[in-house]
Amino acid sequence: EDCGITVIPRRGLRPLVNGYAPTDPRYIVIEETYASYGPAYRGILAEEFCHILLEYDLLATGKVPDNWQPHNLNFEQHQTIERDAQYLARAILIARDIFAERWKEFFEKAPPAHKATREKNLIFCGESLEAVFRCSPLTIAYRARDVGLISPDECKKCFSDRIPM
Of 33, 46, 86, 144, which shows the fewest CB atoms inside 10 Å? Predict the structure, then answer.
């Protein structure tokens, strides 16, 4: 809102994308069904905002200029921007220091049934912190991986591989 960006909910995007920043960077279009699940909605919205931030150097100007056009990106540039936007969105939504402290707290104070194995404890932390940070457990897991609290293999085994495809 402060940057002059309007969010437009739209039905029917889900088979293709969860959301996107269209040619006019003053808008973000997001699948409307996510509005009922805040953790997913926040994550998608943050990532699309980060696309605009990174592709249009929004920090330099504070607002998207009326005459700007989107960058024409090749496949490699698109992959880099996508990866960077996802990482930046997680960093914006889940501050490193606060997150590491809360993760440690949940990890150490997990109920005995969850402490039985490291995997169960990691899943407990990801699912419990969903309410704290209002992000999906998978986003929580990716952030834990980003800051070195879990390994990439643990992230995959305990979170990514559990998603039905």
Answer: 33
